Amino acid sequence: MSRLVPLVEKEVKDLLRDPRIYIGLIVPVLIMPVIGLAMSTAMTSSIESVTREGVKVAVLDFDRTGVSRGFIRFLNGSGLKVYRLSSKTVEDAVKELEDADIKVLIVVPDGFGSNVTSYRRARVDVYFLVKSVGFGEAGLFSIVENILNLYAKVLSESFISSMNSSVNPEEVREPLNTTSRTVIKGEVLNVPPQALFGQFFMGYGIMVPLVLTMVSVTVAQIAATATAVENEEKTLETLLTLPVSRYEILLAKLIGSTVVAVLGTLFFIIGFSVYFQSFFTVEGLTEGIPVSQLKLPPPPPETFFALSLSLLIAVFFTTSLGVIIGALSSDVRISNSLIGIVIVPIMIPAFLIMYGDVEALPLGLQILVYALPPSYPMLIARDMLLAELPVEALYGIPYSAGLTAFLLLLTSRLLVPEKLLSLQYKILARRMKGRKSRG
To answer: Which string of DSSP letters, residue by residue, matches 166-193?
Structure first.
């Protein structure tokens, strides 16, 4: 143990002194807020443009009755800038609008007024002239649809009131009053499930597995880069000749990479939080109840213990993979090209866990998810607030520990100068052979 502490200090200092490591730590803090700011600025500008200029719509009235003129007045009164056309056909109207700054054409067909006065379903044709693809276009079309839906509601209420003035139109249109509640671990919450799932899906279903994935990916990248740098500078061979066991050298690399990876993950969380705050405006739940005030039943202590243990095992597993890749790489460029071998198998199960139910996946994908130790902290963290500790985790943690121990043993056996030089030469020779065949 006394020899391990100086080795860990050496690994942490070497990592923190290497500017290439800082790139991976700082870039998420800079990129994520910039992306969120750019996207939110674009959305805000589009909304402000529509608000400032108003939504322009063209109306082609083939009915020419008092009812159709009342419909057009309703559109004007709702904030739309209505331009009446005198075209003979819809095709002529569309051609007329192609060069105009109007993207919506509303056609009132003949018979609109008679259908309304006869309490029959009336028809209105709406043509959206898509001239670009962007958030502003979608927002403009949504505004027009909402106003048309509002007119339909007003028309429906006038129908009901004209038939029987003593009847409340709202009660006729919505005769069934449904109150939805959510039950979590026996606790009844006065919140509809769709509202709760909306925030939990974003806050826990995506964010938690994504952060845990970044921990695994970051620690693998750091370990691979650090070991490759030692190879490039010929210090790894010198370290292996010291009177220190290979297990202690490997353990020091694991601990050092984990310390720096945790620091990088904190930076990532900060950057990602700024991104979400600038990009998404997450309102409170229905009835104005935020998630923090729902008084959800807390997870049991054994869940936190299982999460910590599975995360520690996953970090050691991915760090060992990173050390192997770094040890097999004669320089950092080769290490960066090979690190994808580690990242891809981690990312695929992460997205399967985030966006789907593992038990509903095909057997092959289930095996892929359960075969990788980084999957288990994601599974535990995703459901720790809403469900009991998954049974898969109870068996997965000892399995992950055994697989990680085997990988640690394999990695320590690999840390022999003669083996490293031989394997590095073989990998470099294959890369050179591949370049010649492509050339």
So the answer is: TS-HHHHH--------EEETTEEESS-H
Phi, psi angle pair for 385, to nearest 5°: -90, -20
Look up tokens 């601990």; give the residue.
255
Q: Where in the chain is the domain with CATH 3.40.1710.10?
A: 54-168
More reliable by pLDDT, 195 or 67: 67
Classify the phi-psi angles of 346: left when phi > 0, otherwise alpha if psi is within -120 to 50, otherwise beta: alpha
Measure the CA–CA gap between 225 and 220, rounded to whole angstroms. 8
Q: Burial code of 385-409, b = ≥16 C-beta within 10 A, e = fewer?
A: bbeebbebbeebbeebbeebeebbe
- State the chain's mean pLDDT as an integer: 73
**C-alpha distances out from residue 37 to 48, 137, 188, 214, 300, Å:** 16, 20, 39, 22, 38
Name the more confident of 41 and 66. Answer: 66
For the segment 263-318, what is each residue's pLDDT rounded down to a tens digit? 766 666 566 566 555 544 444 434 444 444 555 666 777 888 888 888 888 888 88
| 97 within 8 A of 129, measured Cβ to Cβ | yes
Q: Which tokens in the block code for residue 395?
A: 């068996």
What is the C-alpha to C-alpha distance for residues 295 and 216, in angstroms, rounded to an integer? 31
Cβ-proximal residues to 179 (8 Å cutoff; 6+ apart), any chain: none
Among 222, 406, 215, smallest CA distance to 312 is for 215
Strand partners, 60: 107
What's the pLDDT score for residue 51? 62
Q: Which long-range contacts (CB under 8 A, 24 or more apart) does 233-237 make?
A: 236/327, 236/420, 237/417, 237/420
Contact 331, 231 (CB under 8 A): yes
pLDDT tens-digit readout, 232-248: 776 666 666 666 676 67
Report which of 389, 385, 391 is spatially closest to residue 187, judged by C-alpha positions. 385
**H or E segment at 232?**
helix 207-232
Q: CA separation (Å) from 165 to 10, 158, 162, 168?
A: 85, 10, 6, 8
Three-class DSSP category at 276: helix
- The domain 54-168 is placed in CATH, from the list 3.30.1330.10, 3.30.70.141, 3.40.109.10, 3.40.1710.10, at 3.40.1710.10
pLDDT band, very low/low/confident/very high, at 74 (cuts 50, 70, 90):
very high
